Amino acid sequence: MTETMTSAMAALTPRPRRSALTRKVNALRWGTVLVLIALWEAICDGPLRNNDFLAPPSRVLTIGVAAIAQPANLLALWQMTSRFLEAFAIVAIVGSVLGLVLGRVHRQIFHGARDVVTVLYALPMVPFYPLFVLWLGLGMRSEVAFGVIHGIIPLVLITMTASAGVETNLIASGRAMGAGRGQRVGLIVLPAVLPEMIGGLKIAASLSLLGVLLGELMISVDGVGTFILAQINNHQAAPLDAMILIVCLGVVVINALLSLIERRASRWR
Amino acid sequence: MSAAAAPAAGSPPLRDAVEPVISVTDVSLSYGPVLAAHDLTFDVRPGEFVSLIGPSGCGKSTALRAIGGLLAPQSGAVIVNGSPVTGPRPSEISFVFQDLALYPWRSARRNVEIALQFAGVSSRERRTRAMDALAAVGLGDVGDRFPSQLSGGMQQRVAIARALVSDAKILLLDEPFAALDEQTRLKLGGQLLTLLEEHGKTVVFVTHSLSEAAYLSDRIVVMGPRPATIKDTITVPLARPRHPSSMREAEFHSLTDQLTGLLYDDANE
Ligand SMILES: Nc1ncnc2c1ncn2[C@@H]1O[C@H](COP(=O)(O)OP(=O)(O)O)[C@@H](O)[C@H]1O
Ligand SMILES: [Mg+2]
């Protein structure tokens, strides 16, 4: 018995060190970013001098960022952020629950619902936005709703597929150990699908933000979308680019946070 | 019915006088239109080790699921401790699944704990009892590892510890050592036997290994191909406690010959 144990321990490889390869990969990654920025600066100072849409990084960081730091524009940024956060919170809660319910209640329900949700996922939502504005009015509510509709569909699809695929014996053994319905969902199905679910939340986060931003760009009176449209109309490249960069940065940060949680939740894989 | 009253004609009269803990009477089991077992009748007395043996796919696991309350019989009755089984009874019966059904996201210790968690045991008591159960199967020092970090034999012992941690007196084991080589299997089987005798457990053990059944059991129920029917119930003539040397006795060989004969009949049909 000790023999089998020691051999199994030896099979556990220690965590690999930061190797020369990782260092090279990192150097390449950040090197590429620096080269691209330098290229961007060079193009904007040369062939694309004084164009209306792409300012050089030096002007984006000075004039652009200064413009966004003004209270009215910070408000616009906050409006989009709060709309996104509200939409994402709704997506995370409703989408997870809906996905678990559709995946676990009955096989027939799962198969039927999967077809419907797959079609919905393939549909472009943009043409429906005017309907949202008609139903919910101009402003916050229709923008949040548009963010929700973009984010929730992939999360539901991923969660329901993962939870329908949880091994039946894992659940049967829970039943044999006396787990009630709630315990089976909370202590077996949920942890089993958590890594997939967080992956789904990552997709949902960027799509929710896209939905909110699209809403603000199409029919709205405030927020980042409106700010962007105004800069385009006034030929203000630096503030426009600065705002776009900030939005991109926000997406990267959200994604990194969720990846961190994802790695923690799938340590066992 | 008469088969249930006199399951083994050769056994001492005193044993027959004891009330069976498990009695399976004229049980037929099916999955939808597929009949998996037909007219099974056997019983198990307190402290007894009974093996179900038969070709794979014949319905051994199915029979075990019926005793465990995970599958309702189509006809006939399963009676455990005097009352008909209508669902899982975690305080009386614990179950080790054929594929172990360990929760891959839980450490070995927390896999054992979950049996107690479903039973509402406090987290402190859970922890100590789980550690004790793991120590009893020789895994005292790997409680923090995930199942994926354990060898096949260690995973099997975690599953057994999870079944032993509850106070249930009946243990249903579905080919717990199937993935192991013959020597390891018989060694772990022997250790398991000692452990079970210490705990005074009543065991129904599914296997397709003749020598394993002969080495471990008090009685062997031999099943035919699907739908499973009982071909014979054999009382093992070997004395207890068993020792590897038991396998060199003449009785052991004549028993395995007899089993081979019973099972080989089917292969020709
Ligand atoms: N969930 C299920 N649905 C339909 N058929 C099943 C299911 N589980 C088992 N069966 C069928 O029932 C028969 C008996 O299976 P099982 O009890 O697992 O056999 P054994 O454990 O003896 O190998 C097999 O033919 C198998 O295909
Ligand atoms: Mg089986």
Bound molecules: adenosine-5'-diphosphate, magnesium ion
Strand order, largest beta sheet of chain B: 6-7-8-3-9-10
What percent of residues of chain B adopt helix (DSSP H or I)? 25-40%
The helix content of chain A is over 70%
Highest CATH level, the class of chain A: Mainly Alpha
Total of domains of chain A: 1
**CA-CA gap between termini of chain A:** 26 Å
Query: Kindly state the mean pLDDT of chain B as a whole number?
Result: 88
Give the low-confidence spans of chain B: 1-13
The largest β sheet of chain A comes out as: none
Give the mean pLDDT of chain A: 90
Walk me through the structure.
The complex is a heterodimer of chains A (269) and B (269). With 269 residues, chain A is an all-alpha fold. Chain A has a single domain, classed as MetI-like fold (Orthogonal Bundle), CATH 1.10.3720.10. In chain A, 81% of the residues lie in helices and 0% in strands. The longest helix of chain A has 38 residues, at 181-218. Residues 1-11 of chain A have low confidence and may be disordered. Chain B has 269 residues and is an alpha/beta fold. In chain B, strands 6-7-8-3-9-10 form a six-stranded mixed sheet, with helices on both faces. Chain A binds chain B through residues 1, 4-5, 7-8, 11-12, 167, 169-170, 172-180, 183, 187-188, 191-192, 194, 267-269, and chain B through 65, 68-70, 88, 90-91, 93-95, 97-99, 101, 103-106, 114-115, 117-119, 138, 142, 146-151, 153-154, 162, 166, 184, 187-188, 191.
List keywords for this structure.
heterodimer; A: about 270 residues; mainly alpha; MetI-like fold; disordered N terminus; B: about 270 residues; alpha/beta; six-stranded mixed beta sheet; four-stranded antiparallel beta sheet; binds adenosine-5'-diphosphate; binds magnesium ion
Topology:
The complex is a heterodimer of chains A (269) and B (269).
Chain A: H1 2-11, H2 20-45, H3 57-68, H4 71-104, H5 107-122, H6 129-136, H7 140-164, H8 168-176, H9 181-218, H10 223-233, H11 237-265
Helix pairs in contact in A: 3-11, 4-7, 4-9, 4-10, 5-7, 6-7, 7-9, 8-9, 9-10, 9-11, 10-11
Chain B: H1 2-5, H2 13-17, E1 22-31, E2 34-44, E3 49-53, H3 60-67, E4 75-80, E5 83-84, E6 93-96, H4 108-118, H5 123-136, H6 152-164, E7 170-174, H7 182-199, E8 202-207, H8 210-216, E9 219-223, E10 230-235, H9 250-268
Parallel strand pairs in B: 3-8, 3-9, 6-7, 7-8
Antiparallel strand pairs in B: 1-2, 1-4, 4-5, 9-10
Bound molecules: adenosine-5'-diphosphate and magnesium ion (MG).
Residues 60-61, 98, 174 of chain B line the site of magnesium ion.
